[in-house]
Amino acid sequence: MLKVTVINEIMKVGSTIPLRVTCSDFKQYILKGINKNVPTGKALFNEVVASRFAKLIGLDTPNTAIGILPESIITSSDIINLKKYGFKSGQCH
């Protein structure tokens, strides 16, 4: 499973407070996780299901992956105060 290693920036759009991150495979991703705007995983779950369904019926959609946002990244990010946005450690997509 991918693990977030660097927070690069907070995206300027999106109600889920998406982040551009670098993961353990050295690739960059847009991360969506549990935070003050997404207090449960329901919206994120719905996005993953919708994306996978779109692929099944042949629609173009970005790839999705599940990754880990470690607590150490949340507390040590010097670019963005993730605690301010209520990010929680654990699995993200």
Largest sheet: 5 strands, mixed
**Percent range of helical residues:** 10-25%
Say what oligomer this is. Answer: single chain
Give the amount of beta strand, in percent. 25-35%
Number of strands: 5
**Which residue ranges are poorly predicted, with pLDDT under 50 across at least 5 consecutive positions?**
none
Total discrete domains: 1
Counted by DSSP, the helix tally is 2
Description of the molecule:
InterPro entries: HipA_2. Residues 6-75 form the HipA-like kinase domain. This is HipA-like kinase domain-containing protein. With 93 residues, the protein is α+β, with helices and mostly antiparallel strands. It has one domain (2-92). 23% of the residues lie in helices and 26% in strands. The radius of gyration is 13 Å and the shape is globular.
Relevant terms:
26% strand, 23% helix, alpha+beta, 93 residues, globular, five-stranded mixed beta sheet
Short précis:
With 93 residues, the protein is α+β, with helices and mostly antiparallel strands.
Layout of strands and helices, then pairs:
Elements: E1 2-10, E2 19-23, E3 28-31, H1 42-56, E4 67-69, H2 71-76, E5 90-92
Parallel strand pairs: 1-4
Antiparallel strand pairs: 1-2, 2-3, 4-5
